[in-house]
Amino acid sequence: MAERAHALSTIDGYSGYGAEQGEKKLRAAIAATYYSDLGIEETDIFVSDGAKCDISRLQILFGSNVKIAVQDPSYPVYVDSSVIMDQTDLYQQDVQKYGNIEYMTCSPENGFFPDLSSVPRTDIIFFCSPNNPTGTASSRDQLTQLVKFAKDNGSIIFYDCAYAMYISDDSPKSIFEIPGAKEVAMETASFSKYAGFTGVRLGWTVVPKELLFSDGHSVAKDFNRIVCTSFNGASTISQAGGLGCLSPEGLEAMQDVVGFYKENTKIILDTFTSLGFNVYGAKNAPYVWVHFPGRNSWDVFAEILEKAHVVTTPGIGFGPSGEGFVRVSAFGHRETIIEAARRLKQLYK
């Protein structure tokens, strides 16, 4: 990244606007690294300034006349971007839901995978695995059910795999590991959680050529039009960093980063388990989902903040099924995690 930044100050190294879809070398490296056996080509990949930004661009693609389904709980951007796009009805305070959205309950009782037989047809299904906030990863059988459900209903799956590198069991790291997924799904990912690119901003979205609207028109062609209209492409400096991450040395470094945060996660998991709490996630994601049965999640958040001076996230912020839970993140320095664990043990001993 430093070399690319310096090159921009030279006549030979200066570059103007790049390809909105991303530099060819980076698109090829992403395809080779993460999709080599899955039939995804570099032309299916759109490099971006992060998954959150691509979610908003894809909402422009979908428009306002669609109905979405989301895991409940899930990353709030799916719902909030739908509200901004006027896809929803008014907020219903009594059930803490927006109208015209299908909230697919994901709880300990159903293994954090929705009962698809009870979900009505929607145009778009937002699905994140490993899930933020619960930290749970869907199995191959579960994702096979999801793909079949989308095919049967003529739905498009928007699959968020931002935490795929944290998977340590045989759960799929990409929706495209599931046969037939290229016909019903698109996928977004990011360097933020692997390489610490939260401020650098770099990610990608895969839109397979096989994915078509009901009228037979290419989804990728429409998304390409939106990208070229509303986006000038990810920073060339950031893209140089992405190429570095996908080199042998970079991949090893990213695995080290993931391993470090997984160790942090285990410290948090062991802390709450030792205190007698029911905890979920942790194995395949840098999040621990802690259950405080019968309690308001904002009250738990405030209690931990005010008495232990530790910041968590109230579960209700991720959807109504998050009530009674808090999300605890492993992203932090080791000494900070150890100190937080000590304070939590003191608070709940």
UniProtKB/TrEMBL annotation:
Q: Which family does this protein fall into? A: Belongs to the class-I pyridoxal-phosphate-dependent aminotransferase family. LL-diaminopimelate aminotransferase subfamily.
Signal peptide region:
none
Q: Extract the Pfam families matched here.
A: Aminotran_1_2 (PF00155)
Q: What is this protein called?
A: Aminotransferase class I/classII large domain-containing protein
Q: Which gene encodes it?
A: LOC123154437
Q: What are the required cofactors?
A: pyridoxal 5'-phosphate
What SUPFAM superfamilies does UniProt report for this protein, alphabetically? PLP-dependent transferases
Q: Which BP terms from GO are recorded? A: systemic acquired resistance, salicylic acid mediated signaling pathway
Instruction: Please state every residue range assigned to the domain named Aminotransferase class I/classII large.
Output: 9-344
Keywords carried by this UniProt record:
Aminotransferase, Pyridoxal phosphate, Transferase
The entry lists its GO molecular-function terms as:
pyridoxal phosphate binding; transaminase activity
Which NCBIfam families does the UniProt entry name for this protein?
DAPAT_plant (TIGR03542)
